């Protein structure tokens, strides 16, 4: 990591569940690059684990619970962050969820409730974060969301999550357009498959990892630290001319036809 790249910047990392979370790798990279951080976990179930991670890293980050399905949680998160940390220079959106049944059955079976849940947690939550957080963001601030190739290609088993990621990526573009006048950039990073809590909910995930290794030009899977590196670049002023973009960190997998 480039030391000092995020020196003097404040960042909010949304969605650490455990040590394998991509959001945790991003938090560590941003901390190493000099940022002061606020970190969220979903609810009490994750509180102790995330607090131990932060203590172990000695990063003095502030911790907040935030569940986007609880009305008012996102708004009160930003009120608390403003009180404790002040203005923000970057936000990572790493929230995603779809009910297991919707990932197990064929996409054609998707119920409205499962469709709506996936959209709410995995896509509309970015809109809510941008709306509630924009007044707190400094000029040149950067929002980064985590997407996946299932947004534009059929990945068996990814189903309703793929449709939510399509919506997330479209939201990145619309939000980039809305917030550009405030100097706020909005981008997505699209990682290849990485073994995390959420990923294990996708049926056939082990096969996905293998297929990726077999097809990707770099002939391997990617590490969360590589996603964190690209995200840190998008947080930093080095990417000041980039907005509305989806940046693949997938060892080149998405360029392959056969
Ligand atoms: P993860 O399970 O560590 O992170 C997902 C986070 O979403 C968790 O912290 C979880 O608590 C949070 N979340 C779920 N429902 C929520 C709610 N109602 N309110 C607030 N938070 C909620 O898994 P991850 O793989 O690190 O996922 C992070 C992001 O990366 C997700 O957007 C995921 O789709 C994306 N992604 C993951 C992979 C992969 O292979 N792991 C690949 C591409 C993109």
Query: Count of DSSP E strands?
Result: 7
CATH overall fold name: Rossmann fold
Gyration radius, in Å = 17 Å
Secondary-structure-derived class: alpha/beta
Summed up:
The protein is of the alpha/beta class. It contains eight helices and seven strands, in the order βαβαβαβααβαβααβ. It is 42% helix and 16% strand.
Your description of this structure?
The protein is α/β, with parallel strands linked by helices and 258 residues long. The protein has one domain (10-251): Rossmann fold (3-Layer(aba) Sandwich), CATH 3.40.50.720. 42% of the residues lie in helices and 16% in strands. It has helices at 22-32, 44-57, 73-84, 100-104, 112-133, 159-179, 205-215, 224-235; strands at residues 10-14, 36-41, 62-65, 88-93, 137-146, 185-191, 246-249. Strands 3-2-1-4-5-6-7 form a seven-stranded parallel sheet, sandwiched between helices. Strand 1 (10-14), helix 1 and strand 2 form a beta-alpha-beta unit. Helix 1 crosses helix 8 and helix 5 runs parallel beside helix 6. It is globular, with a radius of gyration of 17 Å. The structure holds nicotinamide-adenine-dinucleotide (NAD). Residues 15-17, 21-23, 42, 66-69, 94-97, 121, 146, 148, 191, 193-194, 196-199 line the site of nicotinamide-adenine-dinucleotide (NAD).
């Amino acid at each position: 990591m480039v030391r000092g790249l995020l020196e003097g910047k404040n960042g909010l990392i949304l969605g650490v569940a455990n040590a394998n979370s991509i959001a945790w790798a991003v938090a560590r990279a941003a901390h190493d690059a000099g940022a002061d951080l606020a970190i969220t976990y979903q609810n009490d179930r994750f509180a102790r684990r995330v607090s131990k991670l932060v203590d172990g890293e000695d990063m003095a980050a502030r911790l907040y619970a935030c569940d986007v399905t609880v009305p008012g949680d996102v708004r009160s998160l930003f009120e608390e962050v403003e009180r404790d940390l002040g203005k923000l220079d970057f936000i990572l959106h790493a929230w995603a969820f779809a009910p297991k049944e919707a990932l197990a059955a064929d996409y054609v079976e998707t119920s409205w409730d499962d469709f709506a849940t996936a959209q709410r947690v995995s896509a509309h939550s970015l809109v809510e974060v941008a709306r509630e957080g924009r007044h707190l963001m400094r000029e040149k601030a950067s929002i980064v969301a985590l997407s996946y190739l299932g947004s534009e290609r059929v990945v068996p088993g990814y189903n309703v999550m793929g449709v939510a990621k399509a919506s997330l990526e479209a939201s990145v573009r619309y939000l980039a357009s809305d917030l550009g006048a405030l100097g706020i950039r909005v981008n997505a990073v699209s990682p290849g498959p990485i073994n995390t809590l959420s990923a294990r909910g996708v049926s056939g995930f082990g096969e996905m990892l293998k297929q990726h290794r077999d097809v990707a030009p770099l002939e391997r899977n990617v590490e969360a630290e590589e996603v964190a590196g690209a995200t840190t670049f998008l947080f930093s002023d080095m990417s000041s001319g980039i907005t509305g973009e989806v940046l693949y960190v997938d060892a080149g997998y998405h360029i392959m036809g056969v």
